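User: Sequence recovery, please. Input:
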């Protein structure tokens, strides 16, 4: 405890908590207040957008939230045309406005970029996934980086939620190119000082860059959503759709109460063509959760689902961070093989690609928190720590509220920029930051949906 209390103070803002183990008895369903309903097909985003007037705790209604403005920060966020809705959500989470930028295309297809505000001496973050059309969006990102460099930006970070060409990361046959390395060189030479990427196809792609790379994972968002569902841990099995994704599926299963693992053995006869050969593991009578980093044509994951049903799986869920959805992915995913298809919004999903089983989760808070931590020179990896400690008995969670009734053992520790209430019996911490009460357990946050819900703190013992 002493080492925690003397750790460097966290920034004065609400932090995004990492995923916590679903072992404690959480309610199976929850409701969070959102600023505006997200226009997704099923209306079930896992992470709500923060809006200050609705998300302030009841006992803090007299204090206005302090949001960062362009007058008191040197941080700027600009959005490309690939995924402007995600960029807006990131800016909303961070309490900033998107920077003004003009992007247009000439009649011959050339791209024109002009920053319409000064970025001299600023830390600039450019949000632009290289999703389809990959070449257009990649070229737009390069020109945005060049415009910022010529405008004397201090640091330029390319925020790439989906990194195109990541699958071309090695030579599998003679006379092939390694396009991932080429794209990394282009981004570096354009003038980027840092890259922030989400769920790269392979970890070695980070080594292709000669600049720092912050690699974040969409797993906490999906895991948090799965933890809210009424799935018994004894009935759960995590399935890797191919041998190459075993490490990803194993890490996913470990955070789902150490669920068993199954592997689909496939033999690929060509690009975007897969054939399932065998299943390693037992799925009979169980709920199978297939995990992959992306869904392109959905050939691999749909053939794997067919095999799982043949082997006796009761239900099949598909979980993926990047929804590329190249034809005929929608037809395959909506054919009835899957109970639910869970994706994130790293790539925008057009309305015509919605289908009843689709669930879209937002990674805006995850990326926004990572941007803050990079800007403040704080640890990024701590977002993904796993909490293994039980919830103290005096921290009660009802259907819609997070009610904290601290006992007499709670004391107050004064730190340079924050107050921390410490329960000496349970080692449970309550940290007051930026007009919010953020609950920590041995330095690890509660799951996102609880930590971002409204808080009703019962004032007892004169502590709060």
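Assistant: Recovered sequence (464 residues):
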């Amino acid at each position: 405890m002493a080492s925690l209390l003397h750790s460097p103070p966290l920034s004065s803002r609400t932090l995004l908590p990492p995923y916590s183990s679903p072992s404690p008895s959480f309610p199976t369903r929850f409701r969070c207040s959102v600023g505006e309903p997200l226009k997704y097909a099923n209306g079930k985003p896992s992470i709500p957008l923060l809006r200050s007037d609705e998300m302030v705790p009841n006992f803090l209604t007299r204090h206005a939230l302090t949001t960062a403005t362009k007058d008191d920060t040197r941080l700027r966020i600009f959005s490309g045309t690939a995924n402007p809705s995600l960029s807006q959500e990131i800016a909303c989470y961070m309490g900033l406005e998107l920077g003004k930028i003009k992007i247009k295309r000439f009649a011959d297809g050339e791209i024109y970029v002009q920053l319409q505000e000064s970025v001299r001496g600023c830390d600039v973050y450019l949000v632009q996934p290289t999703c389809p059309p990959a070449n257009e969006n990649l070229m737009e990102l390069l020109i945005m980086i060049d415009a910022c460099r010529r405008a004397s930006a201090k640091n330029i970070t390319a925020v790439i939620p989906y990194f195109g060409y990541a699958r071309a990361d090695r030579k599998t046959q003679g006379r092939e190119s390694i396009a991932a390395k080429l794209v990394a060189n282009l981004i570096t030479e354009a003038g980027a000082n840092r890259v922030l990427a989400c769920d790269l196809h392979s970890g070695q792609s980070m080594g292709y860059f000669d600049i720092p790379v912050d690699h974040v994972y969409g797993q906490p968002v999906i895991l948090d959503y799965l933890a809210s569902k009424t799935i018994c841990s004894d009935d759960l099995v995590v399935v890797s759709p191919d041998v190459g994704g075993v490490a990803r599926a194993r890490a996913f299963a470990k955070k789902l109460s150490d669920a068993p693992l199954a592997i689909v053995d496939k033999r690929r006869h060509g690009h975007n063509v897969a054939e399932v050969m065998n299943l390693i593991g037992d799925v009979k009578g169980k709920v199978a959760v297939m995990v992959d980093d992306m869904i392109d044509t959905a050939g691999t994951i749909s053939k794997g689902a067919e095999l799982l049903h043949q082997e006796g799986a009761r239900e099949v869920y598909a979980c993926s961070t990047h929804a590329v959805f190249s034809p005929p992915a929608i037809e395959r995913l909506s054919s009835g093989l899957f109970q639910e298809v869970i994706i994130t919004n790293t790539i925008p999903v057009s309305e015509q690609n919605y289908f009843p089983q689709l669930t879209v989760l937002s990674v805006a808070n995850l990326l926004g928190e990572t941007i803050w931590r990079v800007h403040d020179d704080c640890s990024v990896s701590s977002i993904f720590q796993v909490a293994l400690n039980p919830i103290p008995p005096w921290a009660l969670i009802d259907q819609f509220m997070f009610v904290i009734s601290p006992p007499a053992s709670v004391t107050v520790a004064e730190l340079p920029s924050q107050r921390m209430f410490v329960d000496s019996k349970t080692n449970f911490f309550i940290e007051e930051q930026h007009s919010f009460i953020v609950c920590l357990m041995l330095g690890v946050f509660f799951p996102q949906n609880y930590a971002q819900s409204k808080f009703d703190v019962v004032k007892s013992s004169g502590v709060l």
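Residues 1-67, 386-464 have pLDDT under 50 and may be disordered.
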